[in-house]
Amino acid sequence: MAEQRIRLLMLVDDEPAQCRLVSAIASRAGWRTIYARDSEMAIATLGTQDGMMLDAVLIDQWAPGSDSADLIAELKSRRPALPILLLTSFGSTDGAVSAMRAGATDYLSKPVTPERLMTALDQAVDLTNNIGELQPLTEKLGQELAFEEIIGAAPAFRTALAIAAKAARSKVPVFIEGEGGVGKETLADAIHAASPRARQPLLKIACGSMAENLLDSILFGHEKNAFTGAFDRRVGLLQQADGGTIFIDEIDQMPSSTQVRLARLVTDGEIQPLGSPNSFKLDVRLITAADEPLAPKLTSGAFREDLFYRINIVQLSIPPLRERTGDISALARHLLTRLAAQPGLRSLGITDEALALLRVYDWPGNVRQLQDVLFRAAVLCDGDALTAAEFPRIAEAVHQAGPSTEVIRQHADGIGVTLYEPDGNLRPLEAIEADVIRLAIGHYSGRMTEVARRLGIGRSTLYRKLNDLGIDNAA
Question: Domain of 446: which CATH number?
């Protein structure tokens, strides 16, 4: 087998400390980093031997020279296929919006974590992934939702929410099972917010892509000189969450030694920091999650049986989005409303044909991918509503999978009343009203008294509207 080529990253930044950090993180994933201190040097580097071999570019938002969006646009004009990522200040959505409009592939908020940067780099150049709006973004909206604000009418989903709402009032451990992106963290947020611990901290950690010693140290803390590189004492997340809640995601990837320590916490309520001769009591609510069922890992010995039964007192299974396609229209509108509150974005509608297209896509990344798709479309949309034209990669994937344009139109027709023209503009009120009346006549089998009652108008008004709109009452 041929040896894999070392991938090349250009970092546009003038801060030595951040350059060293990014280079060290990238090297772990098989990347070599070259540097450009400003936009002028970045553009010049494209013409060098290294520049011809670049696999990706990472630009700090505050790098000297031209505006980062201008630099991205210039780089994309010279190298259209080159993935470009932007490092933004925390919460700087407006900078991300400008970057995306200029052609950026993704954006990351500082301070960037090693696993986040490595994931973003890998996704940026992974040719086996779909590109454009199908590629996951690194960031997401950071607004916690209460149970009543979580969108979903599918029976299995509502059952999970009902169990979660009931469990929130107690302190028993909760285990959430579901594919990546279905909303496990959102559900954990809602459980904490509805619990008696809501005023106490909610801390979170994901076990994937973390070294065993690092995970132990972050969770349980360590004493000075507990291991090589432990120059200072560290208080672990569990101790910081005392009195509150901790959410441990990807627990199926937790190393065996960490499982032993966690089992002691859920059994005896005690932890022992690394290098400490003493243990101490904690009162912390444990919510855990995994992308895959844990039960098969018990047979292989990859997960401890005693820990499994102690964290699995209440189990919640969240169905994937493809199993609740009826929720997609409401979810899309809800997410667009939340996106509109972000700096640099505005309120947008979405056409019925676009919603129909979204409903027939398979959504391997679930709700998180839907949010990312809508974000990209909202950033680039020039009209007042998202149309099917805003989702070319979705349309391509759907057509490759089999459904025809006619099937998509049939899904659109099933919505009932079309609010938008194909170009994204609203239909005239008269046309919408006529559709509503026709829908009501068909729904109530021509019983005009019932139609008038359900529409909240008198029979005489209904017949006048039928005459004005040219509707046959047998429609």
Answer: 1.10.10
Question: Roughly how many angstroms between the first and final C-alpha of the chain, as a whole number?
Answer: 68
Residues 286 and 171 in one domain: yes
Return the structure tokens found at 470. 């040219």
Share of the chain residues as helix, strand and coil, in percent rounded to the nearest 5: 50, 15, 40
The pLDDT tens digits for 242-300 are 999 999 999 999 999 899 999 999 999 999 888 888 888 999 999 999 998 888 899 88
pLDDT confidence tier of residue 309, bands split at 50, 70 and 90: very high
CA 474 to chain centre: 47
Nearest to 123 by CA among 179, 182, 55, 76: 55
Q: Which phi and psi angles does 34 have, rounded to 5°?
A: -115, 160
Query: Residue 36 is part of a domain; what is its CATH number?
Result: 3.40.50.2300
Cα(386)–Cα(379) distance, rounded to whole angstroms? 10
d(C-alpha 243, C-alpha 202), whole Å: 10
Q: Are strands 84-88 and 56-60 parallel, antiparallel or unpaired?
A: parallel
Question: Could you tell me the residue range of the domain that residue 451 belongs to?
Answer: 429-469
Best mean pLDDT range from 2-6, 403-407, 470-474: 470-474
DSSP-assigned states of every residue in 193-241: HTSTTTTS-EEEEE-TT--HHHHHHHHH-B-TTSSTT--S-B--HHHHT
> pLDDT per residue over 193-248, tens digit each?
999 999 999 999 988 767 777 888 889 988 887 777 777 888 889 999 999 999 99
Name the residue among 353, 323, 348, 318 with its Cα closest to residue 333: 348
Q: Indicate the number of domains in the chain.
A: 3
